[in-house]
# Entry
Amino acid sequence: MPDKLADLLQQGPIAINIGVQDFAESLQIQGVEVVRVNWVPPAGGDPELLELLDQLL
Amino acid sequence: MKTGYVIRKNEYYDSVFLMRVAKRLSEQKGILQAAALMGTEKNKGLLADIGVHGEEISAATPNDLILAVQADSPRTLAAALESLDLWLHPEPASGTLSSIHTLDEAVARQPHANLAVVSVPGAYAAREAQRALEHGLNVFLFSDHVPVESERSLKEYARGRGLIIMGPDCGTAIIGGVGIGFANVVRRGPIGVIGASGTGIQEFTTLVHRAGSGISHAIGTGSRDLSDAIGGISALSALEALESDLETKVIAILSKPPGPLALGNLVPRIIQSPKPVLSCFLGLKDTPNANISYGAARTLEEAAALAVQIATGNPPARLHADSPEFQALIHPERAGKKTGQWYIRGLFAGGTFCYQAQQVLQDAGVVVYSNAPLEGNLELPGPLRSVEHTLLDMGADEFTIGRPHPMIDSRLRRERILTEAQDPQVAILLLDFILGFNSSPDPVGELAPAIAEAKGQAAKRGGSLSVVASVCGTEGDPQGLQQQVKQLEEAGVVVFPGSAQAAQFCARLAASLREAPHA
# Structure
């Protein structure tokens, strides 16, 4: 039984938005509490460096 | 024509925001084309394809913004490039940048969060989704181009922890009355939805609303969930959650045909379900599946009507294709058509609508060309030129890589309407309009002048052009359903509430034109 999904359905969303800002805005318009992450591509957008960093951390 | 660009180092903007920047800029007088893109290798390739290149572009990284403009004069070009800040920060609300840069910081700020809405570029999407799951968050994953192996591993991880991944490539969900992504404002009610496609969920939920009932929750699964590679992991979690949800009385599963293994997983669960479960597997040759006790619908309209009937005990009123009212709509559209003028051209913003329309036409014996052909239909040789009956999914990659999706910007559809109208054999244009959060603020208004011009071109040739449309939306949507429908009717468009009905009408009209054109 997916209990955390069931909790989401029962409580309604409390959201963290990562990416398209419009999605956060449309949730806020509907009264949803949203924390917006000001996301940028990690490791300067360099996939090889990102993989290296992920291995180190 | 003059071409130029500016680069802003270390200024990242999301793709939807940049689409709107490019759209607004390209609407300015003298601007022929505008692109606002982050400096990924793919985007740099797209710019090279339209003749925009240079050392600085080669050196740009995915964190660098590139704004490229083609203008009719050096002066217009210079003015556009110099006013970049105006385009990037026109709306104070959306320009408010958060000081939170990571998911860890966000969870620390809101420890009660239960959902991550993830829409970063595909290359980073699985990484962010995995981190969200590790924080105990359900995930709505809008991003596409996530490898199927990553999808499976994310979903197995989620299911093992009582969580769900809605997606990847999930456009729409409705949770407890809240629309997420591209969703409509619909009444709450007894019908729960599990849907593989965003526009499929939008069509079903709006039709349920318009039939007077409502939606408990609509859970997106992503387009590949019911393939054998994934095995319906998210669909099963959604089914279990809706079964235990007190508000949900009926469950509808909407998808393309599942793979045999995925269906094998799903069917026994459906049979055992304590609640009525109905299915709509678009694109199946035959209506499935005797085992699904509460019925299998052929179209999203049938599915919505069946769900409302089960939930309320009353079948909703519908306009049937065999009814005299439906037939009466055909006669006036025959007027003015010339001999040999009978082809249908469908230009769709919603991929599911293109798919469903192909099924409806196929059922009526009409074979079509498409860039996304249903089994038994014909692959269009190239996306730029239509052949005989053609239905185009204009949200497909060949139209949208580096350009706005037609649900956000109608430019590509506008141009294509005018192209199709030049073909004297075209009798019918079939269009869809999708309202709701995050869609274009006025989808009909953006296309109405092109519709009028297309009809005018046909009239000048001494013929006539029928335009048939469906509008997916409700009166509560930001665009307003009635306002959008009124604009279409004023433009002489035949409007249906559902996309399947619009396609049925086209099939009947085309058949009647072929049999006996009305000169």
